[in-house]
């Protein structure tokens, strides 16, 4: 049987300009893409604006503040819950991440959250995660 941990893909792609994103998370900074033609932000990062198809998209640092759009918690007996969430940033884009350092029973839709940056395995990337704000 395949080892699930080995099967997990690294968050890098040779087709995408994502090195800047991961370099920023190492500095505890969150980047999204913004279009220089229509001004709209987007996430996940793309080479072409999903709103107007312009290729003049560039990285922009954002606050990391947002609110819970939706979430789901996996509970296992004897362990803290593992919460996956869609977070709507105050800049208007939504990203999928985890809510950490929070009691899953006290989470709610619309709850304010902010980004924190954690390396979940020693040789892995620093990930943007969220905690209650
Ligand atoms: Zn655009």
Automatic annotation (TrEMBL):
<dbReference type="Pfam" id="PF01796">
    <property type="entry name" value="OB_ChsH2_C"/>
</dbReference>
<feature type="domain" description="ChsH2 C-terminal OB-fold">
    <location>
        <begin position="59"/>
        <end position="118"/>
    </location>
</feature>
<protein>
    <recommendedName>
        <fullName>DNA-binding protein</fullName>
    </recommendedName>
</protein>
<dbReference type="InterPro" id="IPR022002">
    <property type="entry name" value="ChsH2_Znr"/>
</dbReference>
<dbReference type="InterPro" id="IPR002878">
    <property type="entry name" value="ChsH2_C"/>
</dbReference>
<dbReference type="Pfam" id="PF12172">
    <property type="entry name" value="zf-ChsH2"/>
</dbReference>
<dbReference type="InterPro" id="IPR012340">
    <property type="entry name" value="NA-bd_OB-fold"/>
</dbReference>
<dbReference type="InterPro" id="IPR052513">
    <property type="entry name" value="Thioester_dehydratase-like"/>
</dbReference>
<feature type="domain" description="ChsH2 rubredoxin-like zinc ribbon">
    <location>
        <begin position="22"/>
        <end position="58"/>
    </location>
</feature>
């Amino acid at each position: 049987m395949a080892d699930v941990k080995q099967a997990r893909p690294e968050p890098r792609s040779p087709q995408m300009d994502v090195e800047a994103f991961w370099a920023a998370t190492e500095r505890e900074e969150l980047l999204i893409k913004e279009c220089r033609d229509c001004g709209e932000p987007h996430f996940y990062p793309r080479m072409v604006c999903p709103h107007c198809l312009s290729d003049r998209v560039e990285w922009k640092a954002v606050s990391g503040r947002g609110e819970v759009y939706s979430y789901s918690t996996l509970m296992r007996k004897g362990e803290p819950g593992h919460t996956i969430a869609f977070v709507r940033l105050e800049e208007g884009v939504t990203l999928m991440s985890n809510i950490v350092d929070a009691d899953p029973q006290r989470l709610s839709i619309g709850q304010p959250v902010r980004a924190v940056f954690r390396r979940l395995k020693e040789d892995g990337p620093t990930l943007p995660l969220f905690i209650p704000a």
